[in-house]
Design a protein that fits this description.
There is one protein chain. A hairpin with a 5-residue loop joins strand 5 and strand 6 (102-114). The protein contains 1 helix and 10 strands. It has one domain: Porin, CATH 2.40.160.20. It is elongated, with a radius of gyration of 19 Å. It is mainly β and 155 residues long. Helix content is 12%, strand content 68%. An 8-stranded antiparallel beta barrel has the order 1-2-3-4-5-6-7-10. The longest helix is centred in the first third of the chain and has 18 residues, at 2-19.
Length: 155
């Protein structure tokens, strides 16, 4: 009897919270300037994102590919400043061929336009990294800027 009462109270508290969470997948394309050695170059970036959001908080995992030699994974926690502006950050894992992989931190801001089950957004993310190998180095020269579309399954 006590277990049934406990389960009933627990479900009555968690179901409304879970009903506010939506999750989904997104794709993005953008650009970022990198410096390798003495040459600066703007690379095109493609990304895939898995996310979960409540009305005020969110979490996402993003996998990016800047060129055939550079892959980055970001894990972010986001907070909604307004329904159209999200800010946050988290750890980033940068893997560049010829260099030892590096973990760093990122910060990001998103301007979001919600639609029925989708969101269109513009994102700026900065993740500083500086990698060195024998007679070579690579580093970020500025923030990555993206255009993205996300589709929600749980909305």
């Amino acid at each position: 009897m006590k277990a049934s009462l406990f389960l009933c109270v627990l479900l009555s508290r968690t179901v409304p919270i879970l009903a506010q969470i939506h999750y989904g997948i997104g794709v993005a394309a953008g650009a970022q300037t990198f410096q390798r050695g003495s040459v600066s170059d703007t690379k095109l970036i493609s990304a895939v994102e898995l996310f979960g959001h409540s009305p005020t908080w969110g979490a996402s995992v993003v996998a990016e590919r800047a060129d055939p030699h550079m892959n980055v994974v970001h894990g972010d926690v986001l907070h909604s400043v307004t329904p159209y502006l999200w800010v946050g950050g988290g750890p980033s894992y940068v893997n560049l061929d010829g260099f030892k992989a590096q973990t760093t931190w990122n910060v990001e801001a998103e301007l979001v336009r919600p639609l029925a089950r989708a969101e269109i957004l513009v994102r700026a993310r900065y993740y500083p990294f500086h990698m060195e190998a024998f007679r070579d180095q690579a580093r970020a020269r500025g923030p990555a800027v993206y255009g993205a579309v996300r589709y929600s399954f749980g909305r």
